[in-house]
Amino acid sequence: xxxxxxxxxxxxxxxxxxxxxxxxxxxxxxxxxxxxxxxxxxxxxxxxxxxxx
Length: 53
Fold this sequence. Notes:
transmembrane; Cyt_oxidase_maturation_cbb3; mainly alpha; membrane; 2 helices; Cbb3-type cytochrome oxidase assembly protein CcoS
C-alpha cells in the first residue's frame, strides 16, 4: 500500500501532461481541417515533371 503514495501522484501528473498536450495541439490548429485530410487521400496528384539534366 505504500507504493500508492508514489503511483497516485505519477498518474495525476501523466493525466495533466496529456491534457496540456491536447490543449496545445488544439491551440496550434492541429484539428482545424479534418475533412480536407480525409478527402485529399482519394485524389491523385498530377505527376511531377523532373527537370532535364
